Amino acid sequence: MDNIATLLPPLLTGEALTKAMSRLPEYNPDDRSLSVSERLVLLTNIYRVFMPTTMCEEIYHKLYTMTCMSLEQKGNSDGIRRLNSTYRWMCGTEYHGVITGATSATIIGSSGIGKTSCLQYAVELMGGIINPQESCHKIVPVLMISCPFDASCKGLLFQIVVAIDEALGSSYYESVCKGRVNSQQLLGFVCQVCHLHVGTLVVDEIQNIVEHRAGRQLYMMLIQLINTTGISLLMVGTPECIGFFQQVPQMARRTVGLEYGPMTYGEDFYRLCSTIYAYQYVSKTSAISEPICRWLYEHTGGLPSSLVALVYGAQEVAILRGTETLGLESLTIAYNERMRMLHRYTKTHIHPSMLPQTTRLARERLPSPKKATLHMTVTRTIADVVAQHKANGDDLLASLRTLFTIEEV
Q1: Bridge partners of 232?
Q2: Which long-range contacts (CB under 8 A, 24 or more apart) does 162-170 make?
Q3: CA-to-CA distance for 188 and 176, rounded, in angstroms?
């Protein structure tokens, strides 16, 4: 039989990968003239915006290579012997050895940086169900599940079976529930099903194992699962589980992978800000500027989820209160009134070394639904603003807001 890994879609890189992973909902500037209720509904499109970063590219490539390694072990004579050996082991008639070639890794990152969304879009690029002509067994390239909140081994095993049934339309869960099986028999059954139908198993929210005494037992069961089946295992979680995985060398070796923190203040953050900011449903449109981008970073901590929530909240405030403008005033209100619970986690400071090159940013073409560009403002002092106020009679408070955040008390 031909290598099943060749049935995967081609590996994407560069601009092709960025384009394939981007999600930009349709936007019509005329929507700003709609009624309040219609605009509030359309405003939720902001939550559907997704711009891939370097993290997304690395996660996709990691997932693709791990899946290839797993699929290379299927559809051959060794696979049949492995299935027979697993069946005898699950019946308790012989010792079952460890399969070589299985791989496991982790993706560790702060909450809100988009790990799960990135994985979901990466899984879409892996293609649908694989159905080799020489075999009657359909294969799910990547199967995503979540770690049980109570770190239950049986709960996770049943979740794997249910996910396979949902993907393939099979009835494995019904079969396993009809018989009275012990833990070893259940694990053996899941091992056989995974070997037949799963390429890479992704376990999200793996930090749940840290808070429960059964966490170590669940982790060791996952290792036995991949050793028995030869599939790949990718565990995704927050930094809380780093100390857990570093307890012993055996665990640390199997959890080597990718680690990420919040976005840095640079071109990727500018591009994301400009794209989200372009989805304006207030009646008075406004352009993004460097001070606004800097303010957004300082009040979101570089977390994409907080950035989206803040821009959404600011527009919602502007629409409901009738100001109809997206700017520092509405952003400040949304931050103080809608995001109070996140203040201790999002407030940060931009070090001068983090500032990107202005000339490079000015040439950067920013993707957005209406080809919005990033307008860089010229640096001014407070004295310049006061002088302009005296000469032209401009609103002094509004002019000062372009330089820094002003909170009225």
Answers
A1: 200
A2: 164/140, 164/193, 164/194, 164/197, 164/198, 167/129, 167/140, 167/143, 168/129, 168/138, 168/140, 168/197, 170/197
A3: 11
- Hey, which residues does 140 pair with through a beta bridge? 198
Q: Give how far the C-alpha of residue 197 lies from the chain's centroid of Cα atoms, to the nearest Å.
A: 25
- Of the candidates 73, 64, 70, 75, the one whose C-alpha atom is nearest the C-alpha of residue 2 is 75
**Helix (H, G, I), strand (E, B), or coil: what is residue 317?**
helix
Q: Confirm if 114 and 52 have CB atoms less than 8 A apart.
A: no
Contact criterion met (CB below 8 Å) for 156 and 145: yes
Instruction: At 270, list the tokens.
Output: 């500018």
Alpha carbons 380 and 402: distance in angstroms, whole number: 9
End-to-end CA distance of the chain: 74
pLDDT tens by residue, 3-54: 777 889 999 999 999 999 999 999 999 999 999 999 999 999 999 999 999 9
Separation CA 107–CA 204 (nearest Å): 9
Give CA separation, 365 vs 53, 293, 369, in Å.
15, 16, 13
- C-alpha span between 134 and 316 (Å, rounded): 56
List the one residue out of 99, 115, 58, 107 whose CA is nearest residue 194. 99
Alpha-carbon distance of 191 to 197, in angstroms, equals 10
Report d(CA 222, CA 165) in Å as an integer: 20
Phi (first) and psi of residue 237, to 5 degrees? -165, -175
- The residue among 329, 274, 259 whose CA lies nearest residue 307 is 274
**Mean pLDDT of all residues in the chain?**
81
